[in-house]
Specification:
Elements: H1 8-18, H2 21-28, H3 35-45, E1 47-50, E2 64-66, E3 69-71, E4 75-77, H4 90-101, E5 105-107, H5 115-119, E6 125-129, H6 135-147, E7 153-156, H7 166-171, H8 202-210, H9 217-225, E8 231-236, H10 239-247, E9 252-255, H11 269-280, E10 285-288, H12 295-303, E11 308-311, H13 313-344, E12 357-360
Parallel strand pairs: 4-11, 5-6, 6-7, 7-8, 8-9, 9-10, 10-11
Antiparallel strand pairs: 1-12, 2-3
Helix pairs in contact: 1-13, 4-13, 10-11, 12-13
InterPro entries: Aldolase_TIM, Alpha-hydoxy_acid_DH_FMN, FMN-dep_DH, FMN_HAD, FMN_hydac_DH_AS
Domain FMN hydroxy acid dehydrogenase: 1-363
EC number: 1.1.3.46
């Protein structure tokens, strides 16, 4: 990116030009007809906030505390597998950029660098856990995360089964030979590689092979008992499940439809957020993801009851275009936009967003 982009949309365009088409489809696509994928973005566009005036705010404080972690912004990097698909430095580049900007990075179970190597970069780290078939590996991952001073465990509860991601199926998507799930005991097992035969998505086959298909509340309780770290459940949309999450020891919930990559027809995370916020009534922290592309989106999420947001695809777009500097660019754009949005709405900080009046515009009148 020779000229610094001014918007996440410009970073997205640069990433599409830089990545092989099948890799672009993998990071940017959704499941089935991609209805939920589109709904994530459309839901933000239908939200309007009424600014307050004469508040005297000139320099808003953007800092937040998320899942027991101090952050310079009410944002964290979402868990995403295989960062090395987008840049050779992978998670190490993202960790360096997140450290520079002072926001947490959620390291995925299927990260393409070892937890130990990512932790060596420094900066606040969260660990995302998939419910593996091998419970011994789960225990090993939890112990490693604790020993490396990860700040929380984020259990993804809406996968498996793996969503039907038709772009990957049509492309017969395969991982390159040098990209592996570096934290698994046998990272090459069940993984079809580039150049090997087969029509289905190799990522889908690998995920279904290593993950247990029957995650339950009993298993959530088991994770709670087997880690001393704060527990976050990612993938909750129904308020009833959010209440159960609190009852089973969750410290935070991520209101999420997996970026439109699981059940196609689910509501947008930000659309589900108000009912979830009402149901938990402050008994746990709330994060939301899916479709965040502007600093104003962050403010909208806060106004609807979230404590913060997770950033997914935009971070990978930045990584694909310019490695560590590209991720820094994405986070800097969002920081500047969010700070400006706070000032323009008269908010001294993230907490003040709760007092903003929210209205919803018709679908044919995006704001």
């Amino acid at each position: 990116m020779p000229v610094r982009p001014l918007t996440i949309g410009e970073v997205e365009q640069a990433a599409e030009a830089a990545l092989p088409p099948e890799t672009w489809d993998f990071v940017s696509g959704g499941s089935d007809a991609e209805v939920t994928l589109r709904a994530n973005r459309a839901a933000f566009d239908r939200i309007a906030l009424t600014p307050r005036v004469l508040t005297g705010v000139t320099a808003p404080d953007t800092s937040a505390r998320l899942a027991g972690t101090d952050s310079t912004l009410p944002m964290a990097v979402a868990p995403i597998a295989y960062h090395r698909l987008y840049h050779p430095d992978g998670e190490l580049a993202v960790a360096r950029a997140a450290k520079t900007l002072g926001v947490p990075l959620t390291v995925a179970t299927l990260s393409s660098h070892r937890l130990e190597d990512i932790a060596a970069v420094g900066g606040p780290l969260w660990f995302q856990l998939y419910w593996l078939r091998d419970r011994g590996q789960i225990v090993d991952l939890l112990r490693r995360a604790e020993a490396l001073d990860f700040r929380c465990v984020m259990l993804t509860v809406d996968c498996p089964p793996y969503g039907r991601r038709l772009r990957d199926v049509r492309n017969g998507f395969r991982l390159p030979h040098d990209v592996v799930a570096a934290n698994l005991a046998d990272p090459h097992r069940h993984v079809a590689r580039a150049g090997e035969p087969g029509a289905a998505s190799a990522i889908a086959s690998h995920t279904d092979a290593i993950m247990h298909p029957a995650l339950s509340w009993r298993d959530v309780a088991w994770v709670r008992e087997n880690t001393r770290l704060p527990l976050v459940l990612k993938g909750v949309l129904d308020p009833r499940d959010a209440v159960l999450a609190v009852e089973h020891g969750a410290d935070a919930v991520v209101v999420s439809n997996h970026g439109g990559r699981q059940f196609d027809g689910a509501p947008a995370g930000v659309a589900a957020l108000p009912a979830v916020a009402e149901a938990v009534a402050g008994r746990c922290e709330l994060l939301v993801d899916g479709g965040v592309r502007h600093g104003t989106d962050v403010l909208k999420a806060l106004a609807l009851g979230a404590d913060g947001v997770l950033l997914g695809r935009p971070v990978m777009w930045g990584l694909a275009t310019d490695g560590e500097r590209g991720v820094e660019t994405v986070l800097t754009i969002l920081r500047e936009e969010f700070t400006h949005a706070l000032a323009l709405t008269g908010c001294a900080g993230p907490a003040a967003a709760r007092d903003l009046r929210v209205t919803h515009v018709r679908e044919d009148r995006p704001c």
